[in-house]
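Any chance you'd type out a single protein's sequence alongside its tokenized fold?
>
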Amino acid sequence: MDYERKTRVIANSYYNMGLERARLRDLSGAADCLKKSLHFNKYMTDARNLLGLIYYEMGEVGDALVQWVISMNLQPEANRADYYLGEIQRKKGAMEAARRGVRRFNQALVYAQSGSEDLAILQLHKVVESQPNYVKAQLLLALLSISRGDCQKAGKAISKVLQIDRNNPKALWYKSLVKTGGCVPKNEKESEKKKLKNVVSHRQMEDDDVIIPPSYRENTRDQAVGYILAGLLLGAAVIFFFVMPANTKAINAGHNREMLKYSEELSQANQKAEGLEKQLQAIEGEKKTAEDSLASLTNDSDSVLAQYQAVIGILQAYKKDDFPLAVRIYAGLKPELITSSDTQAVIGEIREDIADNGMAVLEGLGDKAAETGDPQTALVYYLKCIELDQKSWQAKFKTAAIYKAMGEKEQANGLFSDIINNSKDEELSAKAKTERGF
């Protein structure tokens, strides 16, 4: 069996395994098998279409679209992917809802990483409410619920994931955590202990006890008056020295307690206000970070979304046999912003094709821009030529000339020296020496 036939057989075997697992709703296992199938045969559109369906079922609409667009470019006619793409286009607001869900999930992820679990859970509730099959959002909601001890909410999210993907490894792991006690509700505080009552014993009088009165003798009238005055003075002294200080002390203690209570309440209010102010500042900072991140992803020409759109534009140009348009779009592409391995594989094939067949087109686009007085655009095309082929001596010479005209002598001299030392074109080397000043 030759190598090509052997790889085709292996790819078909992985595809059949993926199809069987998809029928059993083992979507994670099916996706792994289909990726292996495409590794051995990247032109197998059936495997690519099924992988797109699995991504779509798990809420990954963007990844599904990438697979179907690639499939359509590999097989423009009689391709089931055409029907899938048409269905998404016919659903009003489907793409906008998917984009909104991804933005909210990313925002929830930022909140969770910064410790704002309440805000993260709030965002995730909005995501799963509009997209219940978004597996990543359900898993993150389950994880945050487990960390907060909310077993019921975690179990509900895990159950939803397992309905979509029966053998999802993360969902099964979270389920085991819930079952084995990894998710425990917070205990209520213990009740305060009862205070012991003081027991005071009193001896009762017995029948034999006799109260002996003090000795009695008659007093004169003057003595009685003296006793009365002495009693009054003694009472006044008792009130002045004992009763009044005790009352004053009690009143002052009451005032002190009230002042202490008001001071504590005021301190707590100030601390709460400071905490709210810090929380507000943190939320505003997170909001600005999220807005900046969203702007970098969607707004400018260097955004991640713009790079994906550029790849789709190149594939559409190939489909229309408009090779110059594909080359022109590729010149502005920034592959390093794209993280999808499948998309990177497609970009690699495009790069090889343009390196083999598109160098003259790229250099021609640069010449045309230079003739119209747009050296910056010409520089983009010439640099792309050099990036694809380090032996593009004409493009290097023209790039060096533009750098020299712009006053960047160091970069220009470096390119001129490269041409002088390494180019076998004697005429071009002589021109470079002239420009270099030798």
About this structure: DSSP finds 19 helices and no strands in the chain. The radius of gyration is 42 Å. The chain has a mean pLDDT of 80.
